[in-house]
TrEMBL record, chains A, B, C:
The name this protein goes by in its record: Trimeric intracellular cation channel family protein
Source domain of life: Bacteria
Pfam families the UniProt entry points to: Gly_transporter
UniProt keywords, alphabetically: Cell membrane, Membrane, Transmembrane, Transmembrane helix
Ranges that cross the membrane: 33-49, 61-81, 114-139, 151-169, 175-194
One Gene Ontology term, aspect cellular component: plasma membrane
Span of domain Glycine transporter: 8-82, 94-166
PANTHER family according to UniProt: INNER MEMBRANE PROTEIN (PTHR30506), UPF0126 INNER MEMBRANE PROTEIN YADS-RELATED (PTHR30506:SF3)
Length: 203, 203, 203
């Protein structure tokens, strides 16, 4: 997998996370600054929590101002063109799923670089993919969606397990990445398409 | 106090924190993944915030995969055997109180190792004991219980003050630890038994 | 600008942040410990998040126990003399605005020391000024005020842009600081006096 493809996926993922954050914030009738912050937190939250837990500071987004600009522009565009953007709901969902796959892999990789065990690496991948949404929902004063509905994190965890299984069977690392991103992408689409959820438990 | 006893207390404390997190999450009707995350956050939240504030990264639970497995298994067991586990309410409360004492001492010790002043060490001990529950309640979208009811943190703070007083009067460190853990354990039980709360203040 | 003036502003700012936190907590009928924690988090939250993101640990308040004592005493005084303190609403608001200006500058400066780009430095300044209130509101289970009303963060961002503009035009650093603190102070007062808010966006 070439760097360029990876980067393109990261940009598409970031944009779709920022748009999802902006819409969630507008729904709660925040002012434009609030919308911006929620967009930002949704996009960079996962990677930031991962970097904090690892002690890899200053955290990633501080070292790349372009990344911040991208989120800023996406958020402003979402505020102004919200009716247009809503029409691309399906496209955005596809970007989001692609981004989820990539972010999971990025988190896992970072854990490997830090010499952590596979279980912890999978946790880091899941945190990278999911924590942005958790912080977004916490700030917006709702129980994080991910804890209640949609098998979002489960998809990341299964992708992570698949990744280490593939490496265990000596698959080339780059190929394993592509397979896992494709797996998370496809699995997420199936889950949402057929409205699969985990069973809930009452007290 | 032998290492083995300390470790046993830590394991019992971790288990009881994980169970309390699982029950709180099931009460809010989260899906199994949500229950797991809340159990995890309740157990490791305090130590994680402490390590982040100190800059001691990667944070503790990342370096010990057994710890994570313990929480995972506890959480799964709680989901499946919830009716059975509820019968051990009193036992769990005792473990929880014991864990609170130990976690407070662990936080204080870490502060001492980092050369911080007693007041800050006590704050670290209290954070280690209490922040797991604060994050749990924040994610579950309620005002943290600890801010409203039950003299949870007060017990930690008083235990911390006692610890430094004992050291000041040249008590052997290991003995001081045992005394403080016993004090927090006993004090907490008295507080809950007699429904003591701090007076509340209106605006 | 002399160190003494800066320090005096920092102390006044800290006190007014602690008082605002205490009142918000009492309004939600927390117990005294809860009031204390919310006061603490409101005061040190912004600087703590900044230090964590930068990896400058142990975070600032751990290295200065006087700072913690100041917040503790302020919080206790607020609990006991709340009716008196409310009479100084205007004075407190002025301190708060002055503190906001200073905290923003402190955050920007720290970013510069870490060699970060101006955009990121402004973000750090805004985080230092605003995140205490965001954490306060999150713990108190409301959508952070700053996301919904009052152009709080916007004032920080504009102050930050002004600061780098002044440096760009070769203004002496110390003078630039005074100008920016005065600008944030004055701008905030105008905003609140004339009830200016950013327009809101529905979904």
């Amino acid at each position: 997998m070439q760097i360029n493809t990876m980067e393109a996926i990261e940009i598409l993922g970031t944009i779709s996370f920022a748009i999802s954050g902006s819409f969630a914030a507008m729904q709660k009738r925040l002012d434009p600054f609030g919308v911006l912050i929620i967009a930002f937190v949704t996009s960079v939250g996962g990677g930031t929590v991962r970097d904090l837990l690892l002690g890899d500071t200053p955290v990633a987004w501080m070292r790349d101002v372009n990344y911040c600009l991208l989120i800023l522009l996406t958020s402003i565009a979402t505020i102004f063109f919200k009716t247009h953007i809503k029409k691309f709901k399906v496209t955005l969902f596809l970007f989001d799923s692609l981004g989820l796959g990539l972010f999971t892999i990025l988190g896992i990789q970072k854990g490997i670089v830090f010499g952590l065990s596979p279980g912890i690496c999978i946790a880091l991948g899941t945190i990278t993919g999911c924590f942005g949404g958790i912080i977004r929902d916490t700030f917006l004063n709702t129980i994080p969606l991910i804890f209640r509905k949609e098998v979002y994190a489960t998809v990341c965890i299964m992708g992570g397990i698949l990744y280490f299984s593939l490496l265990y069977f000596n698959l080339k690392e780059d190929l394993a990445k592509v397979v896992v991103i494709a797996f998370i992408f496809a699995f997420r689409i199936v889950v949402v398409r057929y409205k699969l959820t985990l069973p809930k438990f009452g007290y």
